[in-house]
Amino acid sequence: MIADDPDGAQERAEDWARHGGADSAARCGALADVALGDPEAGARALDAASHEAALPAPRRALLAAEASRAWLLASRPDRALESSGLAATLDRSPDYRIDHARAALAAHQPELAIADLSPLLTGPPLRADALIVRATALREAGAFERARADIDAACQLRPDDPDALLERGILRERTGDLDGARDDWSRVIAASPDTHEADLAQQDLALLEAGPEAR
């Protein structure tokens, strides 16, 4: 119900909690909080549930990872880093390592993000999402050539991925390929209209057209 009726989902979660729903009810209520625009409340509830020692490790890891994503929505990268670190400790899934890298980027720690992702990218099959995040981290660390190699590989795997095109556009703009940047950002807007990625691409394009003084 969360996607279509978060208020109704929250009411059901509260009723479920009163009838023994335990961590499952708490999780649903927390995710409803996020959907209703209160990611910090959701993150706190998910965080609390992830520290229940009686729960199996995979369950705690899931709750911690969801807490991390909610903390990012609440603009608390410090807390997101803690939660994603717990998830990655409890479960060695690459998804949780990528979550930790995203939190590290949000916390302005690109070197930590690179360290998280490099073990996942030692050989095939390569994950496009890991390549995109590491490319961003490498760019923020000033390693433009390595970043470009990662983002080119990601674009080969997912030619129309809006996140990959956004990042490649940024790298192209930073290295003087303004036409290439314009092309990538225009593709994001055309392929993924009315999305957060399209909004970011539109902002980047506006700055590009405004000239170097605005960038």
From TrEMBL:
TPR repeat segments: 162-195
Top-level taxon: Bacteria
Keywords: TPR repeat
Compositional bias annotation for Basic and acidic residues: 9-20
Pfam families linked: TPR_9
InterPro entries: TPR-like_helical_dom_sf, TPR_rpt
Disordered: annotated segments: 1-20
SUPFAM superfamilies: TPR-like (SSF48452)
Protein name: Tetratricopeptide repeat protein
